[in-house]
Amino acid sequence: MPYTYEYARPSLTVDVVIFGLDDSGLKVLLIQRGQEPFRGRWALPGGFVRVDEPLETAARRELEEETGVRSVYLEQLYTFGGVDRDPRERIVTVAYYALVKLSDHRIQAATDARDAAWFPAASPPKLAFDHATILQSALTRLRGKVRYQPLGFELLPARFTLSQLQHVYEAILDRPLDKRNFRKKILGMGLLVELNEFEQDVAHRAARLYSFDQKRYERLAEKGFNFEL
Amino acid sequence: MPYTYEYARPSLTVDVVIFGLDDSGLKVLLIQRGQEPFRGRWALPGGFVRVDEPLETAARRELEEETGVRSVYLEQLYTFGGVDRDPRERIVTVAYYALVKLSDHRIQAATDARDAAWFPAASPPKLAFDHATILQSALTRLRGKVRYQPLGFELLPARFTLSQLQHVYEAILDRPLDKRNFRKKILGMGLLVELNEFEQDVAHRAARLYSFDQKRYERLAEKGFNFEL
Question: Which of A5, A10, A52 is the closest to B49 by Cβ?
Answer without folding.
Answer: A10
